[in-house]
């Protein structure tokens, strides 16, 4: 069973905050420690790590090199049925689509060969070419 934790992007301060900035309240309510209740986007941990041991979260951008040494950039998504990914860029063309509805197992296929190179909030330039 994967560990459940979150990080969130503070839209006002444009800063990524981790699960250490969250706390669980009684009755399983999740509260965010922002004193002025600013808007934020929350991202869930996939339970997977990249080839360098870095945790992979929803919204991360992965670089994957295949056997032919061609690089792919993929955005980690929550598809409603599990974690999946969307190809942002590859060596032959730019694309922007979900590759099926992959569960955590589908993403797991790539985690050993992938590297987190950024995320959609702090590194929006990595999304260039996505539709």
From TrEMBL:
Lineage of origin: Bacteria, Bacillati, Bacillota, Bacilli, Bacillales
Organism: Bacillus subtilis
Name of this protein: YopX family protein
InterPro entries: CHP16711, YopX-like_C, YopX_protein
Domain YopX protein: 32-128
